[in-house]
Design goal:
Blueprint lengths: L4 H13 L14 H12 L8 E6 L5 E5 L12 H11 L5 E9 L4 E5 L10 H7 L4 H16 L5 E7 L3 H13 L3 E6 L2 H7 E12 H10 L3 H14 L6 H14 L23 H11 L6 H6 L24 E8 L2 E10 L2 E9 L6 H16 L47
Parallel strand pairs: 4-5, 5-6
Antiparallel strand pairs: 1-2, 1-10, 3-4, 3-7, 8-9, 9-10
Helix pairs in contact: 3-8, 3-9, 3-10, 5-6, 8-9, 9-10
């Protein structure tokens, strides 16, 4: 991936200052009184249209600013934080989904044994850029395998399957039809596969649950987030529908001892305009999971301001001083802009949640709201600078720049084919 000059400079600044390291002692560059004043003023901005907001010092638990914290608001993709946490709570983080295609002992019959793989895609570009399991690949292997067995072209086949999404079955039916093949689909049980398989001709596997959670958050992948939380619902015995999603998220919150007041969920992506959460609930979640290794993938998957994912193009011009210092989940619907995550300010780390779901519809209003939030956080962000050595301390011949070692700059994730955080309405 070719980096813009802004982003290249941002990466260099992060490397030199070591902003990802937060020692336990250092002064906050902005006083708590000043933070409260700034947040109070900007929360009244017409660009945010009476938002719900909260800022909490993660180290002390002190609430530095709050506005409408108990008001149920439309979260947009910030809801993915709940889906990701539920997936990590109830699924094996190292689990990989496997889908295989086999030639059946019955003539003109193929068996597809899946596991409801959330990573499966029908897009050739996504398969190439993200190394996703490609559904058309499996279909083509089925055609070629059956044609070889039958010693001729196919006009009609039977597809016995287990563990495929309804949308994927419908896609396969149309795929075969486009190639002049009438495919008859029927579901099977797990015992059928072993008893009726002649040979396996193709097999694909997903990344781990952990890696999928990171990707879903970094790039705000709606379908992936929704499928992951549905997998968590099935794993806990709930139904594979909207009710199951709501139940598994509430179960996760109960497990973490977080009050779910004001929560109403109809999906796992945040695309529904009927979804509701409070900023207090999201803040409590972010406070609870930070530092817990079980949920490390949530923090690691959050976009970094001006650097990665859905924040890679933000803060660069609106608040360049905050580049690399904010890790947050973005949210965008028509009439809603939201942001929730962690903000670094010297030795302090703040939890920040903002939902502006009463702004005017259209991209102009959304852009103004996003810029206002960027600038707001820019007022309080600051990298930690290690204290310089005292005069009576032995000095190194080549002291590290900024008093800290330069961490390696890792390769950035590849962006998906197109933005999956689409406006609705």
């Amino acid at each position: 991936m070719k980096l813009s000059p802004f982003r290249s400079i941002a990466l260099l600044v992060i490397a030199v200052l070591g902003v990802s390291t937060l020692p336990v002692s250092a002064a906050t560059l902005v006083s708590t009184a000043e933070i409260s004043r700034i947040f109070t003023k900007i929360s009244l901005s017409p660009h945010l249209a009476n938002p719900s907001m909260i800022l909490v010092d993660r180290g002390t638990g002190e609430v530095l600013f709050q506005k409408g914290t108990g008001s149920p608001r439309r979260p947009a993709s910030v809801l993915k934080l709940l889906s990701a946490t539920a997936a990590l709570e109830f699924l094996d983080p190292n689990y990989k989904y496997v889908t295989q295609v086999s030639i059946a002992t019955t003539p003109q019959t193929v068996i597809i044994q899946g596991d409801l793989d959330p990573w499966m895609t029908t897009s050739y570009k996504l398969a190439q850029t993200e190394n996703r399991a490609l559904l058309p690949y499996l279909a083509l292997k089925a055609i070629s395998g059956l044609a070889a067995k039958e010693n001729g072209p196919l006009t009609e086949i039977s597809v016995r399957y287990i563990g495929l999404f309804t949308a994927d079955v419908n896609y396969l039916r149309e795929f075969f039809k486009s190639r002049g093949i009438s495919a008859h689909f029927s579901t099977i049980g797990p015992n059928y596969v072993a008893a009726n398989t002649e040979r396996v001709i193709a097999s694909v596997a997903s990344p781990t649950i952990t890696d999928m959670v990171k990707f879903a958050l970094t790039w705000s992948d709606n379908l992936l987030a929704d499928r992951l939380v549905r997998a968590a619902a099935r794993a806990t015995g709930f139904t594979n529908d909207d009710v199951g999603i709501s139940n598994v998220i509430k179960k996760m919150l109960t497990t973490l001892q977080i009050n779910d007041a004001g929560l109403f969920v109809l999906d796992g992506s945040g695309l529904s305009k009927s979804d509701r959460v409070t900023v207090r609930l999201i803040a409590d979640l972010l406070l609870k999971i930070r530092g817990d290794e079980k949920f490390a993938a949530v923090y690691e998957g959050l976009p970094v301001s001006g650097i990665t994912g859905t924040l890679e193009d933000r803060f660069l011009t609106t608040a360049p001083q905050a580049v690399g210092l904010v890790r947050a989940k973005t949210g965008t619907l028509n009439g809603t802009v939201s942001l929730a995550g962690y903000v670094e300010s010297g030795a302090h780390e703040y939890v920040f949640v903002a939902i502006a779901d009463r702004i005017k519809k259209g991209e102009v209003a959304a852009k103004q709201a996003r810029a206002t939030l960027d600038k707001l956080l820019g007022h309080i962000t600051a990298p930690f600078i290690f204290p310089t050595q005292s005069s009576d301390s032995p000095s190194s011949s080549e002291p590290p720049v900024g008093g800290t070692e330069i961490p390696p700059v890792t390769e950035l994730p590849i962006a998906p084919d197109s933005s999956s955080e689409l406006p609705v309405g």
